[in-house]
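for the recovery benchmark. C-alpha cells below, seq after
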C-alpha cells in the first residue's frame, strides 16, 4: 500500500510539472529511468530508450526556446494546454504500475490530467497578464521561472514525492483561486 501511494504521489508531481513545460518532465523521467533512479511501468519503458531521449531532448530545447518569443508564447499556450494534459496523463501513468489497470488509468487521467491542466491554466493566465502589463517584455523572465519550476517539480517528485504532492495541492489551490475565482471587471474585489 505504501509503495502504491508513493507511486501515485510521484505520478501526480510529474504531471503537475508537465503543466509548466511539456517535455522537460518527460525528458527527466527518461534520463532518471535510464540511470536507474526511477522505475517505470512496463509499457512506459520506451521513455528511457535512446530514440525517445533524443526526441525528448530536441523537443525540450525547442519548447524552452519558443517560450522566449513574446506573443508567440501566448499562441503556443493554445497548443500547449491540451498537450500538457496528455503529457501529464503519460507521466502519471508511467508510475502507477502496481495498480489495477482501471484504477491506474483513472488516477492518471483524472489526477494527472487535472494536475497538468490546472498548472498549465495558471501559467497561461499568468502569461496573458504579463503580456498585458509589460507588453510582452516580462514574458522571458516568466518563461525562465516556468522552466525552472518544471525541473524543480520533476526532481522533487522523484526525490521527495510527498513534498511534491503538497506542492501540487498548493498549485491547484492557487490555480483555482486565480483562474476561477477572479473578480469580474467592474465588480468590487
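predicted aa per position
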Amino acid at each position: 500500500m505504501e509503495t502504491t501511494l508513493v507511486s501515485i504521489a510521484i505520478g501526480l508531481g510529474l504531471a503537475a510539472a508537465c503543466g509548466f513545460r511539456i517535455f522537460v518532465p518527460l525528458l527527466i523521467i527518461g534520463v532518471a529511468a535510464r540511470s536507474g533512479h526511477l522505475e517505470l511501468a512496463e509499457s512506459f519503458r520506451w521513455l528511457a530508450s535512446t530514440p525517445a531521449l533524443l526526441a525528448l531532448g530536441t523537443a525540450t530545447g525547442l519548447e524552452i526556446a519558443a517560450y522566449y518569443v513574446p506573443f508567440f508564447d501566448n499562441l503556443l499556450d493554445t497548443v500547449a494546454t491540451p498537450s500538457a494534459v496528455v503529457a501529464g496523463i503519460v507521466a502519471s501513468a508511467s508510475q502507477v504500475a502496481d495498480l489495477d489497470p482501471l484504477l491506474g488509468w483513472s488516477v492518471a487521467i483524472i489526477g494527472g490530467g487535472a494536475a497538468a491542466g490546472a498548472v498549465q491554466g495558471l501559467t497561461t493566465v499568468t502569461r496573458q497578464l504579463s503580456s498585458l502589463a509589460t507588453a510582452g517584455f516580462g514574458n522571458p523572465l516568466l518563461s525562465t521561472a516556468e522552466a525552472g519550476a518544471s525541473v524543480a517539480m520533476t526532481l522533487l517528485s522523484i526525490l521527495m514525492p510527498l513534498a511534491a504532492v503538497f506542492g501540487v495541492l498548493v498549485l491547484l489551490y492557487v490555480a483555482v483561486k486565480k483562474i476561477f475565482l477572479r473578480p469580474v471587471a467592474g465588480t468590487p474585489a
